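Before any further analysis, we paired sequence with structure tokens, yielding the entry below:
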Amino acid sequence: MGCCFSEPVDFSGDINLYHFELHRAVGKGAFGKVRVVEHKKTTELYALKYIDKSRCIKQKAVANIIQERRLLEEINHPFIVNLRYAFQDDQNCFFVLDLMLGGDLRFHLDRKGYIPENVVQFWVAELASALQYLHSQRIVHRDLKPDNILLDSEGHAHLTDFNVAIHYSERRLHTSVAGSMAYMAPQVVGRQGYSWQIDWWSLGVTAYELLFRKRPFEGRTADKMRSSILNDSLRFPETASAKCSDACLSALKGFIERDPSARLGCNPRGHGFRDIQNHPWFSSIDWQKLEKKECKPPFTPNMEYANFDVSHELDEFLMVEKPLTHTKRKANPDWEKMKPELRQLEEQFTLYDFSRSQRLNYYPHNQPVGRSGSSDHSDRTLASATTTLIPNATIIERSQAGSPASDDHHYNSSRSTTHNCT
């Protein structure tokens, strides 16, 4: 039999899967996988997250996927896993994202047992910078936890998974239960109404877990965990003073504060982020250098080993599931015969190419990011998938705000080098 020759790629046309070489799988989620891909023209490496349309429709997650796609177009920050391309074919929707090969913080916590204070301090500073940026864009993440923080090859922390992220409203509080229960603020689990302040609570709980390898509020059932978050006082392990400085414990108390107006980062006079920058725990951080990635991380992932679960690659090798392949789209599809949900994906999961497109803000007027517009970023009712209340699992409950959960477990980072920040 003769060799098969692939057709030449039209790089002047719209971005599609043929523009990329497919490499190894590094993550798996509810609707598909995450793979390393290489752009054939630029040779840049990215992470390709792909969503099976039929599974997405079956789990009633179409509106959520579209919302995540739109939110990702609005943001671009050094400590966020940024969107570079978005497109679709007949079977899948594709997100092409910054590649992070350094592992997520859950992976490193499980292997190291606990993370030294100086490492946690550095990561929290980088994540605080990312959260401040998101909040300035009127976005609340709602699912900050070790699983959703990825390291690049140098050890810089990046926030990912905007599956339940939403725009917050200045006019009213949100009431939907969304995120991962163990990291939810009291205002979320207690349905007290919440806004962007909940992200700072989740950051505090994440830092606590990284330091002590346990969370401050726990319970064997969802009801017991909810009660603990709402009622139990914050306690530290007996060894906390030996492991951490007083400034560190003070910062944790500040973030894990039930009153949002008194929470670190949430100063009602508008100085929240400045309060974080001026806190004694961050006295060694040069914030300007930090945001330029000119500070050398105190922990560097070992890039000689895979910093992710290698079993993701075995599924396709063992024919457990159908491998991803380049496929041409059907010409002239019959729109009238399409299911409404499939047509919604076709129309609203729009093409994005960071090298050609200006980033847009989809709320409320589809404006280029940075242009002033209405401050009324109201929440939207989205269909919900059934989920189980597991401490580490993202959950979403249908209410006036929110979006259904996907279970994407993430991939990891790119490569570069850094300098210290003292």
About this structure: The CA atoms of residues 154 and 300 lie 5 Å apart.
